Amino acid sequence: MTLFAMVSFIISTVLLLVGVAFITLLERKILGYMQLRLGPNKLGFNGLLQPLADAIKLYTKETSITSSLNKNVFFICPPLSLSIAMMIWISFPFYMPFISLKTSLLMFLSILGLGIYPILISGWSSNSNYSMLGAMRALAQTISYEVSLIFIVMSNMIMFSSMSFSKFCMSQKFFFSLFFSIQVMMLLISIIAELNRTPFDFAEGESELVSGFNTEYSSSLFAIIFMAEYMMIMFFSLFLTLMLMGFTKLNFLNFFFSSAFMFFMIWIRATLPRYRYDKLMFLSWKIILPLSSFNLIFSMILTVFKVY
Description:
By secondary structure, this protein is mostly helical. It has one domain (61-305). Helix content is 69%, strand content 0%. It is built from twelve helices and no strands. The protein has helices spanning 3-34, 50-60, 71-87, 104-114, 116-125, 129-160, 165-171, 181-194, 206-209, 219-245, 252-271, 277-304. Helix 2 crosses helix 10 and helix 6 packs parallel to helix 12 (277-304). Its EC number is 7.1.1.2.
């Protein structure tokens, strides 16, 4: 690991933390224009300083603490969630990677599986019925869609005979999405469900659970939870770009397509109502999982007979 790689990683981390703030602004502006309203437009030019004002407001507010909390665990969960969201970026193939891994896809899947623990523990430590119900929903939803997501990623790993992001991207000679449209659709649904985004935001359903697993969180702890959530949105947008478009290095095209995927997730939030929970489970176990299993077997057959 060279000094340049370390400096590159530190700069990327700082830009990542700053970018999270402006994604919230992007979402509020897009939702505003889609719903025929302006969105934030007072602070700075056209509202560009709104994320800074939100950060000052959230990090200077007093944290509300109820007597029924399991305090130590309650306060640990948000930083743990943010740490996992930042750790997953280590597996990403930057121009100058901080750690060079031959099994970066496997590391990505391993870290992704840890993401449910802060949500589940925060819901339990809050000692609130709403928080606990949101945490249990998040647990069932994450387990359901992570299985399908792993199968889809495994089918790609088998076809390209590699567990490395970089090797996978260099092996692609075409846009993967043009030839496997059903797989891409399942991948998009699984990722949106994994991120707890509308229409699958059952862990944070305001109309049903007040705010879900984070009901008892406020001020800086609340901000840290949503920093982790939006950081994962940024990661999965770049992940989709590399998996579907096959670009080997971060450049303008990567930025364009990842921004398009982020816009797509926000567009879905502005368009679709919340799904029903039993139908979400039916979609996972009865439709997406069998199709992704068949897709995995089909990829193995193509690889064995060297069709691909």
